[in-house]
Amino acid sequence: MVCWSSTKLMNICIAALCKGQRLEKAEAVLIDGIRLGVLPDVVTYNTLIGAYCRFVSIDAGYSIIHRMREAGINPDVISFNSLIACATRKCLLSRSLDLFEEMVQIGIIPDACSYNNLMHCFFKLGKPDEANRVFQDILNRNFSPCSATFNIMINGLCKNGYTNNALMLFRNLQRHGFVPHITTYNILINGLCKARRLGTARRILKELGESGHRPNAITYSTILKCCFRSRQFELGLEVLSEMRSEGYMFDGFGYCTAIAAMVKTGRMIEANECMNQMMKNGIIPDLVTYNTLINLYCKERKFDDAFKLLDEIEKRGMECDKYTHTIIIDGLCKSGYVEEAQRHLDYMNSMGFGYNLVAFNCIIDGLCKAGYIDHAMKLFKSMEIKDSFTYTSLMHNLCKARRFRCASKLMLSCLKGGIDVLKSTRRAVLDGLRHSGFVSEARKLQSKIRLARLLR
DNA sequence: CTAGGGTTAG
Questions:
Q1: How many angstroms separate the CA of A383 from the C1' of B5?
Q2: Which of A208, A212, A231, A256 could make an SS bond with A185 (beta carbons 3.0 to 4.6 A apart)?
């Protein structure tokens, strides 16, 4: 007799192969099993559904439903839950709803997990009311909601702009004895950060520490990213030192964010410390990490160190990307080596990289700063594509050289091309015109700027 | 089933 345990054994084997993305091998094991008289059961097919959904497509997953039926096995709630979860994850939301309905219609009773999926789907559809209805349903039917239910709810509320309700739900749950998991904290912190409520986010972070959980890499990268995005570098660095004094570690992503922000704010000593700490923690640099470090060295004019890293990239069999080259070009410009920067741009082109607008902008700025504004204007005229950086850079430097009418002309072509410029540049051009006697020209330009902004 | 994310220019 073929015993139950051989099917179970086969399932374990198939599950392991599926996990390693070896679907063909898994199918081969199944065929072998059937030939030897080991019959697949609902677990076997559910494993395959999960794997096909994840690695191939939802349709491939769904086709297993047909195969099961042909083999005389009915799909169960787990089969459908995997399909629905997969559809939701891939944002095929109407598909999720159809699958849910199909499941109910063939008489399968949804479980807590099905309802969680449904809520998640409604939130992604931007229908928080529908999601809330499902949530109330879960509570009313005494489905004993698990922490995932609450997490999906809190996350969904945040993502749909109801950060306050999310916070209230969180507090309510706590009052009822719910102990938040690290995931719950992270969801809430992310929501608060995105809503620019940094103060509250920090309070929740503090509570997280007091709760006995430790903030993980996700927690900190969420907070840091948010501080730096809103240009609150001081606060970000404060969080960073808080984290350090607590003995927390970054992953490679976190270090890159932190080092880049320090370089941008001119905190070179701290950036170097951060880099050393990263090395000590055994983070193996990837290309983005190298780019970040090369940027640090270039901005410190340590070109020897920068080129050492370039060698290291090659030695490890990696290839520099457009970021690497742009960083070098900008570094050379900022150190006054504009000719070398231009040579490097030519070299980059010969390597088959496409048009590099950022690099051109760096060189335009570099030429201006080195006093070659006419040279910069010539290059500007030859450029195929320009953006607000190109114009802002030129106009700002023209103003510095007191060539306000030329800057004014550029401003007009910005308005015509629908290119936005910095407020400070607008101010510099207008004030410059006024103070150098071109009052009526300034007035005309100002009204054109107003008109353009109204039409936008 | 639920959470985040890295690098360049004004």
A1: 34
A2: A208
Q: Domain boundary residue among A383, A399, A421?
A: A383
Of residues 308 to 367 in chain A, which lie within 7 A of strand B by their beta carbon? 321-324, 326-327, 330, 357-359, 361-362, 365
Q: Which of A363, A369, A352 is nearest to A386 (CA)?
A: A363
Query: Is the per-residue pLDDT at A1 higher than 50?
Result: no
**pLDDT-derived band of residue A198, with 50, 70 and 90 as boundaries?**
confident
Which whole number is the average pLDDT over A80-89?
92
**By three-state DSSP, how is residue A40 classified?**
coil
Whether any strand B atom is under 7 angstroms from the Cβ of A186: the reply reads: yes
Instruction: Please give the tally of structural domains in chain A.
Output: 2
Same domain, A375 and A392: no
A326 nearest nt, CA–C1': B8
What one-character DSSP code corresponds to residue A141? Answer: T
A311 and A345 part of one domain? yes
> Are residues A344 and A296 part of one domain?
yes
Q: Are A47 and A11 in contact (CB under 8 A)?
A: yes
Q: Sign of the C-alpha dihedral, residues A67, A73, A76, A79?
A: negative
> Which of residues 122-151 of A have CB within 7 Å of strand B?
146-149, 151
The predicted pLDDT at position A5 comes to 62
Nucleic strand B near CB of residue A295 (< 7 Å):
yes
Q: Which of residues 200-259 of A touch strand B (CB under 7 A)?
A: 216-218, 221-222, 225, 228, 251-254, 256-257
State the Cα–Cα distance between residues A153 and A128, nearest whole angstrom: 9
The last residue of a domain, from among A356, A383, A410: A383
What region, left, alpha or beta, does residue A38 occupy, with left being phi > 0 and alpha being psi -120 to 50 degrees? beta
Is residue A114 very low, low, confident or very high in pLDDT (cuts 50, 70, 90)?
Answer: very high
- Write out the two tokens for A297: 């060295």
- Give the residue numbers spanning the domain of A325: 284-383
Note whether A206 and A190 are within 8 A (CB).
no
State both tokens at A403: 């060539």
Cα–Cα distance measured from residue A130 to residue A194, given in angstroms and rounded to the nearest whole number? 23
Q: Which nucleotide is nearest to A182 (CA to C1')?
A: B3
A296, A263 contact by CB (below 8 A):
yes
Task: Flag whether A154 is in a domain.
Answer: no
Task: Show Cβ contacts of residue A222 under 8 Å, excluding neighbours closer than 6 positions.
Answer: A186, A189, A190, A193
Instruction: Please say if the pLDDT value at position A382 is more than 60.
Output: yes
